[in-house]
Amino acid sequence: MVINLINYSKFQKNIINYDNRGMTLENDLNITNSFYLDKDIAIVYKKPTPVKVVKQISGKITNAYFESPSTTDYNGIYKGYYIDFEAKETTSKTSFPIKNIHSHQIDHMRKVINHGGICFIIIRFTKQNETYLLFAKDFFSFINDNKRKSLPYLFFKEKAYLIKEKLAPRIDYINIIENFGGIK
Amino acid sequence: MVINLINYSKFQKNIINYDNRGMTLENDLNITNSFYLDKDIAIVYKKPTPVKVVKQISGKITNAYFESPSTTDYNGIYKGYYIDFEAKETTSKTSFPIKNIHSHQIDHMRKVINHGGICFIIIRFTKQNETYLLFAKDFFSFINDNKRKSLPYLFFKEKAYLIKEKLAPRIDYINIIENFGGIK
């Protein structure tokens, strides 16, 4: 009976995984980017988190810590266009706190737009299980016009693009870019 | 007298630094990319080396090791163009061993070209103290036509672009791209 219970629990765990509950946005984006790469649609990678190595003994790092990144986490190329984005989850039902994006990341996004790149943020509201793509220009319009410290959920409903989850590609953000990203 | 000697040694060290002897190509490129960023010429970063974390105790990494990167080390945007490159030094006077660029990095470069990116390698012959930019298309022409395991120094003289070192930007690769990179 114990064995059966263990097996059932394993089985349940698998169901949950396939069903995507509990999958992080980062995981979903990694799978999506692998799909784009395999199908030769786009070349996008997550940048490794920078690590400050304090001590290293013959190849093995024994003392180190994560540093905060100076740019967004993802960049790459689609149809010759430079694309660049940040991805974040929030457990809030009503808004996305802007402080979740570092000020140097915001500076970076501003520069990318000025240099003609396609720049956006992907935000997942985990409670609603909804993932939105918000173009950086709309993000900047908001923070220029508002003193609020968070982007309301309703703002996403109005200005961002809901990315419906599919089997493959799971989070098809390239489809949004193709249709609304100013691709010629 | 001892104090004077110490001061002189410090002074000498500074001279050597300004003079660029002993500066690695990576250092030079970091300084160059900072210059481009400050002057709003291009946005290019070196990707952090990926680190596989085995053990972490309350934020401190106590067991980890460096992983080999799946892409080139540098990418970014210039005038709306996606740019992507790898940078390597060699102590050989006569050739650059191709095995210094991983096969998955070569695959990545091939994809970048196919997607319309500007892709190249920057190679420094440390003995000659010469730094060359070789466009990926010329690199691929060579490896398609040859069975050699290294790119001869004379090939660089013929097909690559010598980047003369300056005070700022130190390694002005953007100048080569502007003139020979197919920028419209």
Strand line-up across the major sheet of chain A: 1-4-5-7-8-10
pLDDT average of chain A, as an integer?
89
The structural domain count of chain A equals 1
Write down the CATH class of chain A.
Answer: Alpha Beta
Quantity of strands of chain A, as a count: 10
CATH architecture of chain A: 3-Layer(aba) Sandwich
Q: Distance between the terminal alpha carbons of chain A, to the nearest Å?
A: 62 Å
Describe the biggest sheet of chain A?
6 strands, mixed
> Radius of gyration of chain A in whole Å, from Cα?
19 Å
Q: What are the secondary-structure elements of chain A, in order, as H or E?
A: HHEEEEEEHEEHEHEH
In short:
Chain A has helices at 2-19, 25-38, 103-114, 136-145, 153-159, 173-180, and strands at 43-46, 51-57, 60-66, 74-78, 81-90, 95-97, 118-125, 130-135, 150-152, 161-162. Chain A has 184 residues and is an alpha+beta fold.
Characterization of the model:
The structure is a homodimer of 184-residue chains. Chain A has 184 residues and is α+β, with helices and mostly antiparallel strands. Chain A has helices at 2-19, 25-38, 103-114, 136-145, 153-159, 173-180; strands at residues 43-46, 51-57, 60-66, 74-78, 81-90, 95-97, 118-125, 130-135, 150-152, 161-162. Helices cover 38% and strands 30% of the residues of chain A. The first copy, chain A, starts with a helix and ends with a helix. Chains A and B meet through strand 3, strand 4, strand 5 and helix 3 of A and strand 3, strand 4, strand 5 and helix 3 of B.
